[in-house]
Specification:
The complex is a heterodimer of chains A (about 110) and B (about 110).
Chain A lengths: L3 E4 L2 E5 L4 E7 L5 E7 L5 E8 L4 E4 L2 E6 L4 E6 L8 E8 L5 E3 L3 E6 L1
Parallel strand pairs in A: 2-11
Antiparallel strand pairs in A: 1-3, 3-8, 4-5, 4-9, 6-7, 7-8, 9-10, 9-11
Chain B lengths: L3 E4 L2 E4 L5 E7 L5 E8 L3 E10 L2 E4 L6 E3 L9 E3 L8 E8 L7 E2 L3 E5 L1
Parallel strand pairs in B: 2-11
Antiparallel strand pairs in B: 1-3, 3-8, 4-5, 4-9, 5-6, 7-8, 9-10, 9-11
The chains are: A mainly beta (about 110), B mainly beta (about 110).
Chain lengths: ~110, ~110
């Protein structure tokens, strides 16, 4: 069963706009991770946020974590065409196995 | 080349046949994983391994067998392929706990 669920399922934005997607999960976690998957490719690790962290940045990416609400968000600022991809959240409940959500498909229009 | 490689990239097999998907990593990462990706289900864990000769079942292990005699290799075998095993299979590795995974490029398997 999936631990994390992303929302929305799909997102279409104009180049230069920000993209925000959310992830909700069911049980307590050790850390939460975000991955990107370009069409036909493997997943690429973007960022990891631990359960005792509330916010983390990496370049144009900003991730927040609210353990009281069991939710996380991924913000991509100033989006580019190359950001077109599917984005997955994954939760680690402490047994080093990641549980992935179904993903959010982001399309950035030129 | 350093990294994690999967082979073959594409495979078509017939129902009932045995097929093995290969996964090789060059970092000597302790942890390795096999996931399948299907539309509407995201990624589901099939098997995982914490070290050579240590493997365990994930969420959807039925019909699959794994082995890990060497740290760098983690082959996945479908003992008798069924149409429901048509999927994209991803191998991944991780250096240690609380680290991100590195994924291979995937194997697209079609069972006819």
């Amino acid at each position: 069963s999936q631990q994390g669920e992303e929302d929305p399922q799909a997102l279409s934005i104009q180049e230069g706009e920000n993209a925000t997607m959310n992830c909700s999960y069911k049980t307590s976690i050790n850390n939460l991770q975000w991955y990107r998957q370009n069409s036909g490719r493997g997943l690429v690790h973007l960022i990891l946020i631990r359960s005792n962290e509330r916010e983390k940045h990496s370049g144009r990416l900003r991730v927040t974590l609210d353990t009281s609400k069991k939710s996380s968000s991924l913000l991509i600022t100033a989006s580019r065409a190359a950001d077109t991809a599917s984005y997955f959240c994954a939760t680690d409940v402490g047994d080093y196995k990641l549980s992935f959500g179904a993903g959010t498909t982001v399309t950035v229009r030129a | 080349d350093a990294g994690i490689t999967q082979s073959p990239r594409y495979k078509i097999t017939e129902t009932g046949r045995q097929v093995t998907l290969m996964c090789h990593q060059t970092w000597s990462h302790s942890y390795m994983f096999w996931y399948r990706q299907d539309l509407g289900h995201g990624l589901r864990l099939i098997y995982y391994s914490a070290a050579a000769d240590i493997t365990d079942k994930g969420e959807v292990p039925d019909g699959y067998v794994v082995s890990r005699s060497k740290t760098e290799n983690f082959p996945l075998t479908l003992e008798s392929a069924t149409r429901s095993q048509t999927s994209v299979y991803f191998c991944a590795s991780s250096e240690q706990l609380n680290y991100g995974y590195t994924f291979g490029s995937g194997t697209r398997l079609t069972v006819v």
